[in-house]
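Long-time lurker. I teach an intro course on protein structure, and each term I like to show students one example going from raw sequence to a predicted 3D structure in token notation. This year I'd like something fresh instead of my usual example. Would anyone be willing to generate the tokens for the chain below so I can use it in lecture? Attribution to the forum is fine with me.
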Amino acid sequence: METIRYVISIVSVFVLPLLIVGFPLYGLYKKVPVYEEFVEGAKEGFSVAVRIIPYLVAILFAIGMFRASGAMDFLVEGLRPVLSLLGIPPEVLPMAIIRPLTGSGSAGIVLDMINQYGEDSIFVKMAATMFGSTETTFYVIAVYFGAVNVKKTRHAVPAGLIADATAMILAVYVVRLLFG
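-- Reply from a regular --
Happy to contribute to a lecture. Here you go:
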């Protein structure tokens, strides 16, 4: 177990620098005008951001209402027995619910958990692992499908939610395996 932790700690130091340097170098190798492509992508990103603002406002409003109404606390307490049987701490359920909806909302959940349990808490580690290994499914669908005016998402939502649920369950068990 210590060997796995050691390897993970060594690899994690190099991943981000390799990505930051690797992509531009690969683009230069392929003779792509990296800077110009970056600027063009940034322009497109800005216009997409302007088009999706109504979707984002709707999602953030709904999440705010859900949390402020006390529905989140009610749901956590209602599912506590089922989650306990599965070995999933009910304390991480807010992250599992909010993460598919919004990145900033789920970052807020992690911050609330850090303030409540401390940054070294196993609950915070589980929530942070969920944050890093799942996607904001509804946000992504709203952005990408909204940007190209697709109205029928077909299998995108169920596939995304299944992937998120799988990643969240695995996050709980992997964190337990690595941090006990």
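Some talking points for your students: Helices lie at 2-29, 34-68, 71-86, 93-98, 103-117, 122-133, 137-147, 156-179. The chain has a mean pLDDT of 88.
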